[in-house]
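S1.2 Input.
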Amino acid sequence: MEFLILKYKSILWACLLLTTIFIGCQKDIILDIPGYEEKLVVDGRIETGLPPFILLTTNRNIFEENSLDSLFGSYISDAVITISDGINFDTLQTVCSSDIPTGYEELGAYVFGIPSFYLKKFKFCAYSTLNPLFFGRENTNYTITIHYKGKKYSANTSIPTSIPLDTVYWKPEKSTPNFGFAYAKLSDPAAIGDSYFWEVLRIKTGNNQNADTRFYRPRNPVFDDNFFNGKKFNFWFENPRTSFDKSLPENEKGLYKRNDTVVIKFSTINSTAYKYFSNKYAQINSGGSPFSSPINVPSNISNGALGIFSGFATSYQILICNDSLF
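S1.3 Output.
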């Protein structure tokens, strides 16, 4: 018994000693959080067969109260943007949501990538041109130059060679015979570094509900050939329109319904765009978790601006969700 008492006393003394050591080793850490600095934010893209489309905003101060009014009021309409393909040159024109004719709100929502409700309530402006010389072409480099508040910014991008999908098909899940994922087969070229971007638009739904009015992206629409370079590769993507639909049973979320008709927009992008979008969506999908690894989203805009000017080599395929097609 005395031995046990001595043993427990020794353990208690050891715990007390360790506690004292840890408390004595505490050190105050002062974080030097940098103050807010307004920066230009660029969201620009040019696709095969389409004109460039560029949105300009400024970053927000997270230590100030923010609202939809302040967020959507940060869109810039008084910059000057030029574009060049190395031979030709043009100045982009401002196109604002207030210029959209009545009855074309959904088309405007598709072009701006913003729900039509917000287009009606707030003023959004973008920069583009109808000069056919600047409708995107494969294997072409493009440079934009932005003049805003006495500062000059520039960015370069390229539209690579399009690598279309071999085939697309739908396959029902065993537990839900009328619902399944969208599948595709891709033959990746031998050269390493090909990157891809996936978007979808339902032009007909199996339950005859309203079809989509614009392309939607799944939770992570971008991937590269790091694990399947030079090989044939089968993969699937969820339905982004039903992934978070609370009216659906859990085993039907993220799936396409039998007889859905889907346009798949599959794009090839360069490595710079891949790094930007992969980090961006990783940050979005982390949900602001304090336990996730910090993620810095890169930028290809000069002079300290944020954002991306990216090129997309696009191809389109129709997927009819039917058993006979897989």
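S1.4 Remarks. The chain has two domains: 40-159, 167-269+314-325.
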